[in-house]
Amino acid sequence: MTKVRTGPNWQRDLHTLRELRAQLPDDVELMVDGSETYTVPTALELARQLADLGVRWFEEPVPHQDPDSVVEVALHSPVPIATGESFASAKNFAALQRRGGVRIWQPDPMHLGGIWPTRSVIAMADASDIVVAPHSAAGPVCSAVCLQLAACSPNLFIQELFDEFNTSWTRDIVDQHLETDADGYLAVSDRPGIGIDLDWERLAEHPARRGNRIRLFERGWELRRSTDD
After folding, report:
1. Which end of the chain is more exposed for a tag (fewer CB within 10 A), N or C?
2. 60, 82 Cβ separation under 8 angstroms
3. pLDDT tens digits, the chain, 229 residues: what are they?
4. What is the DSSP letter of 187?
Protein backbone atom coordinates (compact mmCIF):
# COMPACT_ATOMS: atom_id res chain seq x y z
CA MET A 1 0.00 0.00 0.00
CA THR A 2 1.26 3.48 -0.85
CA LYS A 3 -0.41 6.58 0.57
CA VAL A 4 0.06 9.86 -1.25
CA ARG A 5 -0.61 13.20 0.42
CA THR A 6 -1.83 15.56 -2.24
CA GLY A 7 -2.09 19.34 -2.49
CA PRO A 8 -4.62 21.77 -3.97
CA ASN A 9 -3.34 21.59 -7.58
CA TRP A 10 -5.23 18.53 -8.76
CA GLN A 11 -3.63 18.41 -12.22
CA ARG A 12 -0.17 18.24 -10.66
CA ASP A 13 -1.33 15.66 -8.16
CA LEU A 14 -2.86 13.55 -10.91
CA HIS A 15 0.40 13.65 -12.86
CA THR A 16 2.32 12.45 -9.77
CA LEU A 17 -0.14 9.63 -9.18
CA ARG A 18 0.00 8.49 -12.80
CA GLU A 19 3.78 8.36 -12.58
CA LEU A 20 3.56 6.32 -9.40
CA ARG A 21 1.04 3.93 -10.86
CA ALA A 22 3.24 3.37 -13.90
CA GLN A 23 6.32 2.60 -11.80
CA LEU A 24 4.83 0.56 -8.97
CA PRO A 25 3.92 -3.15 -9.18
CA ASP A 26 0.29 -3.90 -9.93
CA ASP A 27 -0.27 -5.38 -6.47
CA VAL A 28 0.69 -2.11 -4.73
CA GLU A 29 -2.51 -0.25 -3.90
CA LEU A 30 -2.81 3.52 -3.99
CA MET A 31 -4.74 5.43 -1.34
CA VAL A 32 -4.89 9.17 -1.82
CA ASP A 33 -5.06 11.66 1.08
CA GLY A 34 -6.52 14.99 -0.01
CA SER A 35 -5.75 16.63 3.37
CA GLU A 36 -8.98 18.66 3.10
CA THR A 37 -7.46 20.93 0.46
CA TYR A 38 -9.98 20.68 -2.40
CA THR A 39 -13.31 22.24 -3.22
CA VAL A 40 -16.24 19.99 -4.11
CA PRO A 41 -15.89 20.51 -7.90
CA THR A 42 -12.12 19.91 -7.97
CA ALA A 43 -12.42 16.92 -5.63
CA LEU A 44 -14.97 15.32 -7.92
CA GLU A 45 -12.92 16.06 -11.04
CA LEU A 46 -9.87 14.46 -9.46
CA ALA A 47 -11.91 11.52 -8.15
CA ARG A 48 -13.09 10.71 -11.68
CA GLN A 49 -9.47 10.56 -12.79
CA LEU A 50 -8.44 8.51 -9.76
CA ALA A 51 -10.98 5.85 -10.62
CA ASP A 52 -9.05 5.08 -13.80
CA LEU A 53 -5.93 4.43 -11.68
CA GLY A 54 -7.71 1.92 -9.45
CA VAL A 55 -7.30 4.06 -6.32
CA ARG A 56 -8.84 2.30 -3.29
CA TRP A 57 -9.93 5.42 -1.42
CA PHE A 58 -9.86 9.21 -1.53
CA GLU A 59 -9.28 10.43 2.02
CA GLU A 60 -10.72 13.76 3.22
CA PRO A 61 -10.71 15.60 -0.11
CA VAL A 62 -12.72 18.46 1.44
CA PRO A 63 -12.79 19.86 5.01
CA HIS A 64 -14.32 17.40 7.47
CA GLN A 65 -15.93 20.32 9.33
CA ASP A 66 -18.31 20.67 6.36
CA PRO A 67 -20.25 17.39 6.39
CA ASP A 68 -22.57 18.50 3.59
CA SER A 69 -19.60 18.90 1.23
CA VAL A 70 -18.07 15.62 2.40
CA VAL A 71 -21.31 13.78 1.68
CA GLU A 72 -21.82 15.52 -1.66
CA VAL A 73 -18.41 14.33 -2.80
CA ALA A 74 -19.00 10.84 -1.39
CA LEU A 75 -22.33 10.46 -3.17
CA HIS A 76 -20.91 11.38 -6.57
CA SER A 77 -17.32 10.12 -6.40
CA PRO A 78 -16.51 6.88 -8.25
CA VAL A 79 -13.78 6.30 -5.63
CA PRO A 80 -14.81 5.56 -2.00
CA ILE A 81 -14.38 8.52 0.35
CA ALA A 82 -12.74 8.04 3.77
CA THR A 83 -12.96 10.46 6.69
CA GLY A 84 -13.26 10.73 10.46
CA GLU A 85 -9.68 10.87 11.75
CA SER A 86 -10.28 14.25 13.40
CA PHE A 87 -13.74 13.54 14.84
CA ALA A 88 -13.78 13.96 18.62
CA SER A 89 -17.22 12.49 19.33
CA ALA A 90 -19.43 9.60 18.31
CA LYS A 91 -22.02 12.25 17.49
CA ASN A 92 -19.85 13.42 14.58
CA PHE A 93 -19.98 9.92 13.13
CA ALA A 94 -23.71 9.62 13.84
CA ALA A 95 -24.32 12.79 11.84
CA LEU A 96 -22.30 11.34 8.98
CA GLN A 97 -24.20 8.08 9.23
CA ARG A 98 -27.56 9.86 8.89
CA ARG A 99 -26.46 11.62 5.72
CA GLY A 100 -25.05 8.47 4.09
CA GLY A 101 -22.50 8.28 1.31
CA VAL A 102 -19.27 7.83 3.27
CA ARG A 103 -18.54 4.11 3.50
CA ILE A 104 -15.07 4.20 5.10
CA TRP A 105 -14.66 5.63 8.59
CA GLN A 106 -11.31 6.42 10.23
CA PRO A 107 -11.91 6.68 13.98
CA ASP A 108 -8.86 7.73 16.00
CA PRO A 109 -8.80 6.67 19.68
CA MET A 110 -6.56 9.64 20.51
CA HIS A 111 -9.28 12.03 19.39
CA LEU A 112 -12.30 10.02 20.52
CA GLY A 113 -11.03 9.52 24.07
CA GLY A 114 -9.83 5.95 24.22
CA ILE A 115 -10.73 2.37 23.47
CA TRP A 116 -14.39 2.20 24.48
CA PRO A 117 -15.73 5.24 22.54
CA THR A 118 -13.75 4.13 19.50
CA ARG A 119 -15.14 0.60 19.76
CA SER A 120 -18.64 2.10 19.99
CA VAL A 121 -18.08 4.05 16.76
CA ILE A 122 -16.83 0.89 15.05
CA ALA A 123 -19.96 -0.97 16.16
CA MET A 124 -22.12 1.88 14.86
CA ALA A 125 -20.38 1.60 11.51
CA ASP A 126 -20.83 -2.17 11.43
CA ALA A 127 -24.57 -1.78 11.96
CA SER A 128 -24.71 0.27 8.75
CA ASP A 129 -22.37 -1.92 6.65
CA ILE A 130 -19.64 0.71 6.86
CA VAL A 131 -16.02 -0.42 7.04
CA VAL A 132 -13.39 1.13 9.28
CA ALA A 133 -9.69 1.91 9.03
CA PRO A 134 -8.62 2.95 12.56
CA HIS A 135 -6.46 6.05 12.27
CA SER A 136 -3.04 5.94 13.88
CA ALA A 137 -0.36 8.53 13.19
CA ALA A 138 0.52 9.58 16.76
CA GLY A 139 2.99 6.92 17.82
CA PRO A 140 3.36 3.36 19.11
CA VAL A 141 0.78 3.54 21.90
CA CYS A 142 -2.00 4.62 19.56
CA SER A 143 -0.88 2.00 17.05
CA ALA A 144 -1.05 -0.76 19.70
CA VAL A 145 -4.55 0.35 20.69
CA CYS A 146 -5.68 0.46 17.08
CA LEU A 147 -4.37 -3.04 16.42
CA GLN A 148 -6.43 -4.42 19.32
CA LEU A 149 -9.50 -2.64 17.96
CA ALA A 150 -8.81 -3.89 14.46
CA ALA A 151 -8.53 -7.47 15.68
CA CYS A 152 -12.04 -7.43 17.16
CA SER A 153 -13.79 -5.49 14.40
CA PRO A 154 -15.69 -7.58 11.83
CA ASN A 155 -15.93 -4.55 9.57
CA LEU A 156 -12.18 -3.81 9.43
CA PHE A 157 -11.03 -2.56 6.04
CA ILE A 158 -7.34 -1.94 6.70
CA GLN A 159 -5.09 -0.88 9.59
CA GLU A 160 -2.85 2.13 9.17
CA LEU A 161 0.69 1.95 10.59
CA PHE A 162 2.63 5.20 10.61
CA ASP A 163 5.25 4.38 13.26
CA GLU A 164 8.21 4.16 10.90
CA PHE A 165 7.64 7.80 9.90
CA ASN A 166 7.59 9.08 13.48
CA THR A 167 10.63 10.63 15.13
CA SER A 168 13.12 7.98 16.25
CA TRP A 169 12.78 8.44 20.03
CA THR A 170 9.20 7.17 19.94
CA ARG A 171 10.64 3.68 19.47
CA ASP A 172 12.54 4.00 22.75
CA ILE A 173 9.51 4.56 24.98
CA VAL A 174 7.92 1.13 24.41
CA ASP A 175 9.26 -2.39 24.80
CA GLN A 176 7.55 -3.83 21.70
CA HIS A 177 7.16 -2.37 18.22
CA LEU A 178 4.59 -3.19 15.59
CA GLU A 179 6.18 -4.48 12.43
CA THR A 180 4.52 -5.70 9.27
CA ASP A 181 5.57 -9.00 7.76
CA ALA A 182 6.62 -9.47 4.14
CA ASP A 183 2.98 -9.52 3.06
CA GLY A 184 2.05 -6.36 4.96
CA TYR A 185 0.24 -8.04 7.86
CA LEU A 186 0.48 -7.23 11.57
CA ALA A 187 0.50 -9.89 14.28
CA VAL A 188 -1.76 -9.29 17.29
CA SER A 189 0.11 -9.63 20.59
CA ASP A 190 -1.06 -12.17 23.16
CA ARG A 191 0.45 -10.10 26.00
CA PRO A 192 -1.87 -8.48 28.59
CA GLY A 193 -3.56 -5.19 27.88
CA ILE A 194 -2.64 -3.57 24.58
CA GLY A 195 0.52 -5.68 24.25
CA ILE A 196 3.18 -3.11 25.13
CA ASP A 197 4.79 -1.56 28.21
CA LEU A 198 6.01 2.02 28.49
CA ASP A 199 9.50 3.05 29.58
CA TRP A 200 8.47 5.92 31.83
CA GLU A 201 12.03 7.20 32.34
CA ARG A 202 12.63 7.55 28.62
CA LEU A 203 9.18 9.05 28.20
CA ALA A 204 10.02 11.75 30.78
CA GLU A 205 12.90 12.86 28.56
CA HIS A 206 10.37 14.12 26.02
CA PRO A 207 7.84 16.35 27.81
CA ALA A 208 5.04 18.08 25.96
CA ARG A 209 5.94 21.50 24.55
CA ARG A 210 4.06 24.10 22.58
CA GLY A 211 6.22 23.45 19.56
CA ASN A 212 5.40 19.74 19.43
CA ARG A 213 3.09 20.09 16.46
CA ILE A 214 3.25 19.10 12.84
CA ARG A 215 2.50 21.97 10.50
CA LEU A 216 1.38 20.25 7.32
CA PHE A 217 2.92 21.46 4.08
CA GLU A 218 5.55 23.65 5.73
CA ARG A 219 9.01 22.79 4.49
CA GLY A 220 10.25 19.65 6.22
CA TRP A 221 6.90 18.76 7.82
CA GLU A 222 7.35 15.14 6.78
CA LEU A 223 10.37 14.87 9.12
CA ARG A 224 7.96 15.27 12.07
CA ARG A 225 10.35 17.44 14.09
CA SER A 226 9.27 19.64 16.98
CA THR A 227 9.57 23.38 16.49
CA ASP A 228 9.30 25.93 19.29
CA ASP A 229 6.82 28.76 18.75
Report:
1. C
2. yes
3. 545 444 457 788 888 899 999 999 988 888 999 888 899 999 999 999 999 998 999 999 999 989 999 999 999 999 999 999 999 999 999 999 999 899 999 999 999 999 999 999 999 999 999 999 999 888 888 899 999 999 999 999 999 887 777 777 778 888 888 877 777 888 888 888 888 888 888 888 888 777 666 665 566 555 555 544 4
4. P
What domains appear along the chain, each with residue ranges and CATH number?
A: 2-199 (3.20.20.120)
- The pTM of this model reads 0.84
In order, the DSSP letters of 148-178 are HHHHT-TTB------GGGS-GGGGTTBS---
Residues 6+ apart with CB under 8 A from 47: 58, 61, 73, 77, 78, 79
Q: Angle at which helices 40-52 and 10-23 pack, to 10 degrees?
A: 20
208: number of Cβ within 10 Å: 7
